[in-house]
Amino acid sequence: MATKENLIHKINNGDNNVFLELYGNDPAELKRNAERYTGLLNRFTTEFGYNDCEFFTSPGRTEIGGNHTDHNWGRVLAGAVNLDNVCVAAKNSTNVIRVLSEGYPRFEVDLTYLRPDTREQYTSAALVRGICSRLTELGYNVGGFDACIDGGVPKGSGLSSSASFEVLIGAILSHLFNDDALDPIQNAIIGQYSENNYFGKPCGLMDQTACAMGGLITIDFEDPSKPVVKKVNFDFVATGFSLVITDTGGNHADLNDEYASLPTDMKAVARELGSKVLRQVTLDQIIEAAPKMRSRVGDRAILRAIHFQGDNQRVVDQVEALEKNDFKSFLDMVTESGFSSFMYNQNVYPVNNVTEQGVSLALALSHLILKGEGAWRVHGGGFAGTIQAFVPRKLLDKYVTTLEHIYGKGSCHALFIRHQGAGLVNL
Predict the structure, then answer these.
(1) What is the torsion angle, in degrees rounded to the nearest 10, for the CA atoms of residue 129, residue 132, residue 133 and residue 136?
(2) Per CATH, domain 237-415 is 3.30.360.10
(3) Whole-angstrom Cα distance, residue 339 to residue 355?
(4) Model-level pTM?
(5) pLDDT digits (tens, 9 = 90+) for 26-41
């Protein structure tokens, strides 16, 4: 623990090595985060009335390879980004967790009751309760703490703000009560458990794992109960490219059926071939059986199965290219993945509203600006929301200006892959 005065001294208006690692070397961004940390610290001491506390961070994540592959036990490539959730926390010597998130009502979780509460479903309190319940079941310690959180991972941005929050809570509990004994993958699995069983959302494990571990990782879900996670050593900052996420402002309402159709279609093809998921079949098998399958599963399902096979292998090839420092081949495969999502997976606009194609338009503009010099693809679930692009420094201003001309000021986020995952900010 450190005092408020000591922490402010260490923040040093953003001039410290930890901030450089977390947020890059842009002076304006360093200053913004210094003000953010200081303001959060002041809010904490005002709200909870004591000085000794610590900072914690948890990044957002971006999916870089493997679009809609995880739910059919495939591979993904993901990275932690420099937009993060930051928290000031300290033990409070009670059995109650008290959390104040900027812009949201304060909530409390009484740890004497850790069973799911249907009245809390779809709330942050449900996530906290579920994490504590699972930690207790696994033999870890939990206890009361006070926390102020600044949510720097925008909701609806495709950067997994909920997963970032989950592993942030896990990291706080690990540090304050378990001597940092919880490893990142355990933290991710516990966060997923809480989201599935307490929050009420049947999510996969990619988001939590990327946020918890930090850096660039590849995950193989061939055995979904024991995913294989591997760090990929590559310095994106050294390439001179920015990773730009653009929010196209699409409406996510009424898209549940669209999202559900993706795993449903893919698994329908797998069942036709006597398997549970597409990871268990080959592209040759799909093509061989296609004439007989068309009337039973439909052509779209077959196209989506073709996408799965391509993107699942592409993750392996992308990792190999990065490990060989072949960034050009990597970029080419990012764009190939984007074309596959557009043509085969068909998750760039909803079929019940073909006049609204914000994602498609953003991809078209990206193609016009970046062809031959960058890469672009749909980001995350698709249908609405965000796209991803790797933009060279010389084209960054043009790219952002063009996309924000269509989608509004602040719709583009220029990011980088950061190394630290969820955990203590050791100023």
Answers:
(1) -160
(2) no
(3) 20
(4) 0.86
(5) 899 899 999 999 999 9
